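question for whoever is on the cluster today: can someone run the full assembly for these? three chains, 995 residues total. i dont have access anymore since they changed the login thing
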Amino acid sequence: MIRRSLTLFAGLFVLILVIGWAMGLPFTSSRLVEAAAYSLIALGLNIQWGYGGLFNFGIMGFLMLGGFAVTFISYPVNPQFWGSDGPWMLGRALIAFAAGALLVYGARQSDKIGIKGGWKTFVTVLAWFVAYCVYRSQIDPAAAYIEANAGFVGGLGGHPVLGWLFGGVLAAVIAFIVGKIALGLRTDYLAIATIGISEIIRALIKNMDWLTRGTLTVSPIPWPTPLPQAYQASGSDQFSSLLLARGGFLLLALAVLGIAIWLISRAYAGPWGRMMRSIRDNHIAAASMGKNVTARQLEIFVFGSVLMGIGGAMLVSFTQIFDPSSYQPINHTFLIWVMIIVGGAGNNWGAVFGAILIWLVWVVSEPLAKVIFDFVSYWSTNVGWGAIPEIESRSAQMRVFVLGLVITIALRYAPKGLIPEVVRRDA
Amino acid sequence: MALLELKHVVGGYGGAPILNGVNMAIEQSDIGVIVGPNGAGKSTTLKAIFGLLKVTGGTIEFLGESIANSLPDKLVPRGLSFVPQEKNVFTSMSVEENLEMGAFTRKDDFSETMQWVYEMFPVLAEKRRQPAGELSGGQRQMVAMGRALMSKPKLLMLDEPSAGLSPRYVIEIFETIVRVNQEGVGILMVEQNARQALAFASKGFVLAQGQNRFTGTGQELIADPEVAKSFLGG
Amino acid sequence: MTELIFFINQVVISGAVLGCIYALGAVGITLVFGILRFAHFAHSELMTSGAFFAFLLAALFASWGIVTPIPLGFVVLPIAMVMSAIFALGIDKGFYAPLRKRGAKPVILLIASIGVTLMVQGLIRLFFGAGSYSFFETETKDVFRVDLAWLGSTRPLVITEPQLLMIIVTVVSVLALHFFLTRSRLGKAMRAMADNADLAQVSGINTALVVRVTWIVAGALACMAGTMLALDVTLKPDLAFNIIIPIFAAAIVGGLGQAYGAIAGGLLIGFAESLAVFNWTMVLRPLNGVLPEWAQLPATLSFVPTEYKLTVAFVILVVVLLVRPTGIFKGASS
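^ ran it for u. tokens below:
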């Protein structure tokens, strides 16, 4: 088992070297940083699915939350916003939101003052309606005002790593809410719930221009480590400063990844991990033994989401731009699933391996497809059939096809993944 | 050549075998009853005959032809029918539709058979349009049996037909089984109500640990003091 | 009166059309779930590919100079449905059946169907590019405007020919499906297998045949839904991928495995979406005359801004799941 893992990782290393030689160091260094972030996200899904047996198909939503969080924390302060009536109006909207929440809470407790059954439902629905209207009445003018005067609320000018942590916190909060509602239902409904919540998050972030600038995007978002420009200013040439800067980011990313792996391994090996696995493998039996299955599942769901939030934040920090439209379920949810299915669900190293491998396959398939198309086009032109049209866009679409193909082949021949879970015989 | 013959049948669900050499022979005129302690392999025998688990040794022959490891939809047209112990009706479908499903493999007109089933179980005729899930336990068992009879089987196998039924329904079910047999259908059933079932069995098989322990007519087994002591609760 | 006609145009007709499409898609999903017990995510691709089959056939017919009174898209639909049914059978045989034989768990089949989705999407984009196509390049889309001036309305009732045909075709298909499921031997066998697969096998029902029939029906209905959608808007590679969530929601809301539930769910969500984004100001405008200055209606007053249309399906889904977890028609609990 160890030998197999080492061989696979060695193979991966060779692949990285090949890509570095074929595509150049700047390209490869960027991809490696992204792979590190994706490894963290894959670890998160591994906790939820590999350890907990929970289906999270809304990974995209959590990545967006992380991206938003780091944007909000680390983007420079927008003086136009703070100098205007914007904060005051937002404050009112916040009060309206709180009042609405209290109203709904009160309605749900109305049975304590004698309103029961059908009336209670009516009162609750009425409360939701009123709360919604009141909130909209405050937030709509506030939003319009901010967008007209200041563009958007801007950031807090904090350190990016704080933004990463905030990303984890935000993801945890949403995961808690979603989990509370959906984990009470059957676990495959969790899949639908997560897809839905991720769509809602996407719709909200994309359209709340006053908070996120929506489709206008936010950039440039600062780095936690020195930017290439900083190295250039101190005398290095362009090429080296690019590599040095990215190397710095990569080291930080790997450090975060390392800490995460260490923490998870410790937890997995301990009693908490054993309990988790017993729940995953037979939650009916576990429940009958008195273990609070739903509470443990909620814990797993939240922990996994934290990693996804941090990973999503890291990605946005690295690319320096927060673009809500760039989030696609294929890229940001399904890709992660492929990573742990191919890599090995239930095994941290499998998740990391899968993440790096699949990410590289994903980014390489487009240039590779282009090369193949060019070659075929060259040949077909010579034979008199004319060139293949729109090679650029068609190559881009090939990634999707290749991903589907990889999933199918992986499920057929290595259904437990390339580095599958090590089933320990607990003494 | 017997209608159904088992010789040294070995089989299980994968892993250690549950049946370790079971022998049986049933004719179309017989009422065969399999009894024994829990885990003896009684239900497993029926499932092995019906192709619901893997037979790894021995032979199972129906009308002289080997049927071991055949799929159920090949066995029903040959004249073999099975009533499982649990979940043995289509709860969302009406009584009449349940019966129709029993006749799925038949290519001819089965309305006569349906009449026959309704005569056997008059209460079903009353409730023919009701969803089977709304019926009582005893009535459901009748639907299950009726469904299995629709294919006009030569041999009807039942897995604990009296399980969970009130004493009144137990008597009714057993009386119906005897009637069905008198009308020409061989019976092979597994029963926990050993004493009651063996009372009208023409062939009784006591199984323990996947093997035959005692074989004889129902009356012989009831009268045998050893059998009575170990397996019939005194 | 004008306002009522506006309401009918925007909500009733639009909702009915959307509801029909969702209903047909959801029926396929619910049938596959009932018989095979897994969520067939690639159903959207059956819809999109079905639409492309129809598109190619329509273009072929047009190039042969065939002209018909109703849009070519509808004329070629039966042939396209056959092609889609074969395609669905092929996908099952190639991708799902091998996994089922090895006892794969439902989530693995779901992931496999995601793989199929991606591959089919990729192939479609490969051959057709990422742009949009219209069924109405060579023929015109007839629009029926029913003038209701005699009722006092300044607006006509507007319905396009494809929309009208769509509703008729859906009603016919639903009736045909109903008769199939309740009167035919094979249809009842399908219901039996969805009810209790083990007992169905014990009864002698040829389960492999039922599985094949399920894919044929699902594929044919998906093709119908996809083609109708493409006739109503335009044909793009991600045509149906955008509505896979409302369709799943419709199937779940109606009760997984319950064909009638899927139809009801589809119509419910179709109407709900149209109602949710409806601009009430247009209808309530006459009130502006009687309301004081400060209470004038804003320019757009809708429950949900149009950008959030897709979240309506999700909200309905959550509410139904909380109140009645197995759906309106009490479907399977898996």
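summary bc i know u wont read the tokens: Strands of chain B lie at 4-12, 19-26, 31-35, 54-62, 65-66, 80-83, 155-159, 186-190, 203-208, 211-216. Chains B and A do not touch (no CB pair under 8 Å).
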